[in-house]
């Protein structure tokens, strides 16, 4: 994520927190006001609150689906890139097999060794990233479990 994107995300999160704070205060005021309202007015308010809750759930579902689509697209891009890379390497290997020139063959040996070292580095980095992702998922699960066990705020 670029610095300007990170800053935009921070601003958006701050705005979301402010919006959340305002909404919580409105809910608090609304509950306090129900003590003096007639039952039919309260029933109308309950129905409106149910509709707002449904709309919020629908919005959350839509945002989740969009995030899932973005993640899927990212994965597709990686697979496509990897497949292109493998195809190019195999073409180079096939072309090398057709070469007879000793000088070219010596160069290809070094290129093959360099590629093997690069592939090992990529694999090592992928394992490191996988470990990080798993540890982060475990931490997120622990956080979710902790918040669930503490009950609603």
Structure, described:
The chain is an all-alpha fold and 153 residues long. It has a domain at 105-153. It has helices spanning 3-33, 39-98, 102-150. The longest helix has 60 residues, at 39-98.
Layout of helices and strands:
Layout: H1 3-33, H2 39-98, H3 102-150
Short description:
92% of the residues lie in helices and 0% in strands. The protein is an all-alpha fold.
Describe this protein with a few key phrases.
3 helices, 92% helix, 0% strand
Mean pLDDT: 77
Please give the alpha-carbon distance between the first and last residues: 32 Å
Unreliable segments (pLDDT under 50, ≥5 consecutive)?
A: none
Overall helicity:
over 70%
Bin the strand percentage: under 5%
Order of helix and strand elements from N to C terminus: HHH
Q: What is the SS-derived class?
A: mainly alpha
Output the radius of gyration.
28 Å
Q: Biggest β-sheet, characterized?
A: none
Name the overall outline: elongated
Helical stretch count? Answer: 3
Let me know the number of strands. 0
